[in-house]
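Run: sequence + magnesium ion -> complex structure.
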Amino acid sequence: MARFWLKLRAIPGWVWPLACGVVLLALPFLGLGYSATRQIELTLLLALIVVGLNLSLGYAGELAMGQVAMYAAGAYAAGMANKAGVTDIWIQILIGAAVALVVGLISGIPGLRLGSWSLAMTSFFLILIVPDVLSIFKEETGGRNGLAGLTPATSFGQLIDSRTYYLIIVGVAIVVFALIRNLVVSGHGTALRVLKQSPVLASSMGISVFRAKLTAYAMGAVPAGIAGALFANLDLFISPEAFAFSFAMTVLAASIFGGSASVYGALIGAAVLQFGMNQSTNFSKFGLIISGAFLLIGGVAFTGGLAGLMRKLLRKADFAAKAKAGIRAPKVAAGSVEKLDGALLRADGVSKAFGGNQALSKVSVEAKPGAVTAIIGPNGSGKTTLLNMISGFYRTDAGSIELDGQKIQGLPSYKVARAGVSRTFQTPNIPEKLTVLESVEAGRYASGRSSVLASVLRLPAFWRSRNDGREAAERALALVGLSEQRDEMADSLPLGNRRLLEVARSLAASPKVVLLDEVASGLDEDELEVLEGLIVRLRDAGMTVILVEHNFQLVLRLADDIYVLAQGAVMAHGTPDEIESNPRVMEEYLGVTAEANSAGGADDE
Ligand code: ADP
Ligand code: MG
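>> structure
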């Protein structure tokens, strides 16, 4: 039984939805009646709108309600093209998609630039003004009366009958869903999931938060535009009522109920709402209430929606089956570290004040390739702040930061990451709902991603980067000794493993410089040994390692060069021997650590 289940699960995941698509295509030939086919058509159109919303809401984490406005834009663009004599459905679809994309970009740029709730507000506003915009261009759009008398659509000069039109809708939906699925299971999809949970982590991994969110939002407009064009030619009539606020609520409810962080969840949610609404004869009266009820059920009863629930059950079944069949992930022995190209990192006279608090004053630090540069000092002495300055999270008040002679201060953090600076966090930053392997693969974004287009179309460049990324991630996991945990959920790991996971993630980026912020705290002795061995190998391979650490003995063993910070300034600098024989350091530094350790080693930021 367990074996059978695992065999079933070994079939690639895309086979099942594709099989459902083929069944949908076959239905009219099996004698499915008019009203059922129409329900399916409307479900698929709704699903196309919802899947666009899922890209921005479920993946990028932006509540954007504008999909209905883009649906309207697509419908009216196609309808007006039809009136102007363009009856070919494919051209109308292209026009609808393009116009929706433009609307998405225009509404997304200011909304996303301003951040937080702005996109929700601008996109909400976008829906409200649809009827007014249509009234202004009454001549072309028919205003409140709608756009009637469209010419039946053609395909390459052939008039389309209703069965063919059904096939076109199903076919287009299959293609669009396949492409969006390709996007979300690529590195770009993982990047969006990271970004939704932690923009700070995302930018430290080389992801441009603004660009990624805009891409998700604007790409979400395209299926809505396509659905609009298909809708206009379905009844050959469109009016503002079809794009009202209550419909936006239906879209949102379908997204939440089906599971917004899912592609197929859009189909499930759309089907539930479409068929649910159809059962209620008084829908026009109670539509909003029904949508609201689904929203509440989806939001309260199960976060992640129906798709999330299914995913959870599948994972459980997989785990049980694997345990029963006695299958465990192999423990991979760490291979050798090939030669690495480190870079010279130089901070010169860096100062930073937070309000009246001078966190750093004129700090100069130099970290060479093939060496471990340790930064030590009591809590609050500015160590993390210095790493944050290097990463580009804060702007310097004074001073410069250079990587191999290139100025990096003032660059946004994702560009610093792309320049080759990778890091771990004092409090491990591990996004939810990613496996250990996926989390490490996500670290490849800065150095090894393929373009969005290549990912969506599965061009050779995508496969190359995917295979490289997987290999690099497996290697990094082996280096930190986490191969056995590769399929576990990353956020369920204990603290020590989380720290090592962060190290693996930062190494997967093939960085020139790694910044390790108190990686050793919380590790047990075995883990400490793995970490120490790893740092030595990275150094010997030529990487630039900056180690912020409280464990003084570890620092003495590992460091080639030590900087001691006190109250935001470098109070001493030298080799481990020099630092150890510096009475002032020993008194101040060890005095404070002893105190901090007895107070429970508080090291929170
Ligand atoms: P360390 O890592 O050496 O323990 P930090 O760099 O975290 O020290 O902190 C140095 C000082 O800067 C502390 O006084 C801290 O309160 C302050 N600080 C750090 N980050 C911020 C921030 N984002 N806003 C205000 N103050 C901060
Ligand atoms: Mg710190």
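>> summary
The pocket of magnesium ion (ligand 2) is lined by residues 383-384, 426, 605 (CB under 6 Å). Residues 209-235 form the longest helix (27 residues).
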